[in-house]
Structure to design on (396 residues):
């Protein structure tokens, strides 16, 4: 079946209204960024004990969404699932945009965005941060070359680039997980399961996001989308959720069993604090159990509206997983002197609480709005969207 990719007209009142709303949110985010840069990070919820706040959560969340989207783009070229070929271009484009959004969140959180080139000028092979600078920049380059091969019809390039894209996406998100997993000093960070957990969460959240984007985009542009293609993606999403849940269970069971990590783990799971609710309600219930019930229930698993609802819950749940991964590891104090009580004027040994501030929320929403604006502009400028997406059984 020949697939025809075209640009969108994008001149409707609804489109202009959407772009206007996104522009206002983006402007608010940029103003919040300017305020944080000019006044200092003291206006945020971050402090000396909590240097990684919501901007880092948004950054690693977008990296995961990007990696999952990029793997999804290779389903037809690499994994032989030709029915998903109509989604390949848009998935690569979304992957590149999300990584740009992630890098924006990281750079703007530095406080010194003018030093953006330093990680490339001073490579430290023993620093995972240094390696990630190389991984992220080359990731965007791979996306560009991959899209170029699709646009120009160079079929001999598409499969090799798809294989490289999958390997690089796994490497990028493994490296992101390693940033935390390699930190031996913090009990809730250090773990050999950090990288694989990040990768599986990326697959689930990336697939869920692409389902939401595809259904919404095809509906908004009036193009035909075969429901069986979305149902096929949902069949992948269900197992991805179960794998993430398995890794999370193993991680926390091991930490509860280990004496050195029992106390901080109990703080998260049974402490009755905000992180306890985010874990059990946000990650486990909303992000895992309810979507699995929907996606494996014969009454709902073939319904696109139910699949979209489950996908939305997964996107929310993985964001909760990122919150749980980043924040409690800093909130709970370092165990510098085991089996000893420690007090000092610098709040050492004391649980520190972090409250997300309005500037952080505005900045995060602003960055996501910029990504959305670039996505819409991309649909207008480039032939990313097929005129229709039909199941292969229609080809006679």
């Amino acid at each position: 079946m020949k697939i025809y990719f075209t640009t969108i007209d994008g001149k409707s009142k609804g489109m202009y209204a959407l772009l206007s709303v996104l522009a206002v949110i983006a402007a608010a985010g940029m103003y919040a960024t300017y305020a944080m840069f000019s006044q200092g990070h003291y206006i945020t919820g971050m402090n000396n004990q909590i240097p990684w706040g919501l901007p880092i959560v948004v950054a690693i969340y977008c990296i995961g969404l990007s990696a999952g989207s990029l793997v999804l783009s290779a389903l037809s070229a690499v994994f032989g699932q030709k029915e998903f070929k109509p989604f390949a271009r848009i998935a690569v484009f979304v992957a590149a945009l999300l990584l740009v959004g992630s890098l924006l969140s990281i750079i703007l959180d530095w406080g010194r965005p003018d030093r953006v080139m330093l990680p490339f000028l001073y490579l430290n092979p023993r620093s995972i941060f240094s390696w990630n600078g190389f991984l992220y920049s080359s990731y965007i380059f791979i996306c560009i070359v991959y899209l170029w091969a699709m646009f120009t019809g160079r079929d001999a390039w598409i499969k090799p680039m798809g294989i490289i894209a999958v390997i690089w996406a796994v490497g990028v998100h493994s490296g992101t997980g390693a940033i935390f997993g390699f930190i031996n000093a913090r009990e809730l960070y250090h773990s050999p399961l950090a990288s694989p957990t990040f990768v599986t969460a990326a697959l689930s959240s990336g697939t869920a996001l692409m389902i939401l984007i595809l259904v919404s985009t095809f509906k908004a542009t009036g193009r035909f989308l075969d429901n069986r293609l979305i149902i096929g993606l949902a069949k992948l999403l269900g197992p991805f959720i179960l794998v993430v849940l398995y890794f999370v269970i193993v991680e926390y069971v091991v930490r509860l069993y280990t004496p050195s990590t029992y106390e901080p783990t109990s703080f998260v799971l049974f402490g009755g604090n905000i992180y306890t609710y985010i874990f059990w309600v946000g990650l486990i219930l909303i992000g895992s159990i309810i979507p699995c019930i929907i996606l494996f229930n014969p009454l709902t698993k073939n319904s696109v509206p139910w699949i979209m609802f489950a996908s939305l819950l997964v996107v929310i749940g993985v964001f909760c997983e990122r919150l749980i991964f980043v924040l409690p590891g800093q909130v709970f104090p370092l165990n510098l002197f085991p089996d000893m009580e420690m007090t000092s004027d610098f709040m050492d040994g004391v649980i520190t609480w972090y409250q997300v501030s309005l500037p952080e929320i505005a900045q995060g929403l602003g960055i996501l709005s910029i990504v959305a604006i670039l996505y819409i502009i991309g649909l207008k400028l480039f032939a990313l969207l097929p005129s229709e997406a039909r199941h292969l059984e229609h080809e006679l």
Remarks:
- The chain has 13 helices and four strands.
- The chain has one domain: 5-394.
- The first strand starts at residue 5 and ends at 6.
